[in-house]
Design goal:
By secondary structure, this protein is of the alpha+beta class. It is 47% helix and 27% strand. It is built from four helices and five strands. A hairpin with a 3-residue loop joins strand 1 and strand 2. The longest helix has 20 residues. The two termini are 35 Å apart.
Length: 100
C-alpha cells in the first residue's frame, strides 16, 4: 500500500475531498515524525509502538574495496507491532498458541 492508497482509503471513509484526506494522512505522519525527533515514544493501542533506538559506532567494511570504514553512532526509528496486530497477520498461530 502506498501513501496515495492510504489517502484514497481515508477519503472513502467519510464525505471528504481528496485534499482533506491528504491533510489527514500528512498530519498523522508529521506527528509521528516530530514525536520521534524529540525522543518521544508513540504507542497506538492494537497497532504497535514507534520509538528511537541508539546504534553504537562500529567498524564496517566497504563491500567494493574491502576497506575498513568507521560507521558513526546514529539514532534509528524502530516499530514494534502489538500482539493484536501480530495475531491478525498470523491467525493460525494465534489459535495454536491459545490451544496449547
Amino acid at each position: 500500500m502506498t501513501k496515495a492508497d492510504l489517502v484514497e482509503k481515508v477519503t472513502q471513509l467519510g464525505d471528504l475531498t481528496r485534499r482533506d484526506g491528504e491533510v489527514i494522512v500528512e498530519t498523522v505522519f508529521d506527528s509521528v515524525i516530530s514525536a520521534l525527533q524529540s525522543g518521544d515514544k508513540i504507542e497506538i493501542r492494537g497497532f504497535g509502538s514507534f520509538r528511537i533506538r541508539q546504534r553504537n559506532p562500529r567498524i564496517g567494511r566497504n563491500p567494493k574495496t574491502g576497506e575498513r570504514v568507521e560507521v558513526p553512532a546514529k539514532r534509528v526509528p524502530y516499530f514494534k507491532p502489538s500482539k493484536e496486530l501480530r495475531d491478525l497477520v498470523n491467525p493460525g498461530e494465534a489459535a495454536t498458541a491459545t490451544a496449547s
